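Last lecture ended with a question: if I hand you only a sequence, what can you say about the shape of the protein? Today we answer it with a concrete record. The protein is Sestrin. Below, first the input exactly as provided, then the predicted structure, then a couple of comments.
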Amino acid sequence: MGVQVPAPIHPYPSYFIPAEEIVSLKWSSEQYPSLSTTPSPSSHPSSDDRISSSNISTTSSPYTFIGRQPDEPVKRLIIETFASTGRISHLYRILSYFPSFMEKYQESFYKIVEDVSGPVKVVERLYIAIMAASQHKCQYLVSLFKHDFINQNGDTRWLEGLQYASEKIKSLARLNTILAHRPWDLRPSHIDELIKCANNPNGYWKRSDVIHVILVLATFHSLSSFVMGCGIVPEYDTKGGNYMPSELTPGLFGCDDSDSSFGILDSNEKIRSDVAAGLDDENTLDTIQLIERLKSKRESTNEEESKDIENIEVEETPKHDSPNVTTNSLSRDETETTTNFMKNNITAPSPGVNVTEDFSLYLDPTVETPYSDFPVESSLFRLHEYCWEDHGVEMVSNPLPGVGELLDQEFSEIRDLTDYSLFRLYTKSNTELDTTPLRQAIWFYVLRLFGLFKDDYSYENVDYLLNNKFKSYIRKLCCTPEDITIDDWSDMGFEFSSEDKCHVNLIAVEARKQAELVYGLWNVMKWRSREDSE
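The predicted structure:
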């Protein structure tokens, strides 16, 4: 009797993205001739066999596809990533849509999470990453970084629950939950609880440590949003990434044993058929309208653009010790929008169905803060008084040289990234469509969701360019990504390709990351100024 080998929980890197649209690890000159097809002499598919869910055979089953063929820069990036990490993770398979961004992301991620020269120990950073990902029930990241924590000789007892971790680590639970769910509620007093100083001799952390911790938390809160927004599948060699075929029982993953693909093919076919059908006439009409509005934005004069800010109702009524302004400039109708498109069940294994981690182990129930929308009547945080570019970059780079600049490049790259191909199927000419206003609207809408106000941005553009369904999706992605389903992915409100949806997700989650950093770093600065004045 042969030894049973676990099977991948899903044969592709994403539950949501059709396999033929994902960058392939098998490089062929025989398929997709419209793409770069020069085979790389250094490619060797078997080198990635240990993550077989990423290494798709083109002949092993009737429902596998070769995927998109990468061009030379992407091939080079894939090879370099494998050489440095020992795997091509499902996350990087998706990020390889955007090689220039992926390179910058890898640089900042290394400095924040992996570089031994940082003020916080690497093993502590990995555990903090687990805590952060647990806030959003992110199976992929929790399982992956438990794996890395063990590889770094972390105390395995800590993985049994936060109560077994050091007091130093446990003290971060409140900061973790506030940054994840209500960063606008963070106060200098929360920072004071952490830092050892004359006023708090029982503190465990230095100021430089807390800045590093905030970077790690913001990184993994936002990364959880991206992972769950793209339906990224747990790695084969981590918990939740595989199963024993002999243990398959009727009803597992919402299907029966007679479906040899466990509903996966049906799920991917559902996505393709939905896209082909245009989902519904409303989305198609909204997409056409968005294209026309983007064209009109390009043709509008600077004088017309500047009028919007004059129409925003502003009333300065400070409620907190923060740069603020009270405004109802954005319609709150979308917060009441009923998202009926979220209610359908999916038939394949998916986040929320095959969850194997107990995320509560890494949270402290005595301090947990559930998510709630930023109160419409509350004071907004004025970014012209404290912002990432003018203040945060330098503040981060003091304890972590160069990291502020790396993150700033990362933010700029994803905000400015475009190949002018968006909605190409809907445009009758070859004229390039400038999507800058759309990318800006997504970015500043997310900042506004978190209570941040940019004085020189015309917020009327948000309601002008983004429909309510799309705004509901962005809110869910950034605030409660654990609730994302395949139906959300399929029906965002506009007709995007899978690559464009990933781009939308990246813009939104990077804006979320910046929002958390602004709140966290501003409170550290306020704590420092109070300490200096005493």
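Comments.
1. The beta strands are 7-8, 242-243, 314-315, 324-327, 379-382, 452-453.
2. The chain is about 45% helix and 5% strand.
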